[in-house]
Amino acid sequence: MHALTPRGLYLLTPDTADTPRLVADTRQALEAGITWLQHRNKCLDLPAREAQAGQLLALCREYRVPLIINDDMELAA
């Protein structure tokens, strides 16, 4: 088994309800070369967090960057 060793720039998302801005800012960070993204939003309800996470996951897949979901097993599943 190989363990992942985080290298590079690790970005945490802010608690925000502005999904279009979050996605645009995240795309810029991905284009700048971040290598890990952690989605953290404790202020929104589950449907809104799911919508944000879904859009961020699509971006992360496009850039081949791991997406980490913080403190939310239901959302991570």
How does this structure look, described?
It is globular and about 30 Å long. It has 77 residues and is α/β, with parallel strands linked by helices. The chain contains three helices and three strands, in the order E-H-E-H-E-H. The two termini are 22 Å apart. Helix 1 links the parallel strand 1 (10-12) and strand 2 (36-39). Helix 1 (19-32) packs parallel to helix 2. The model has no long low-confidence stretch (mean pLDDT 89).
User: What does the average pLDDT come to?
Assistant: 89
> Can you count the helices?
3
Quick one: overall form?
Answer: globular
Helix content bin:
40-55%
- CA-to-CA gap between the ends? 22 Å
Cα-atom Rg, whole angstroms?
Answer: 12 Å
List keywords for this structure.
77 residues, 3 strands, 13% strand
Secondary structure elements and pairings:
Blueprint: E1 10-12, H1 19-32, E2 36-39, H2 46-63, E3 67-69, H3 73-76
Parallel strand pairs: 1-2, 2-3
Helix pairs in contact: 1-2
Compact overview of the structure:
This protein is an alpha/beta fold and 77 residues long. α1 runs parallel beside α2.
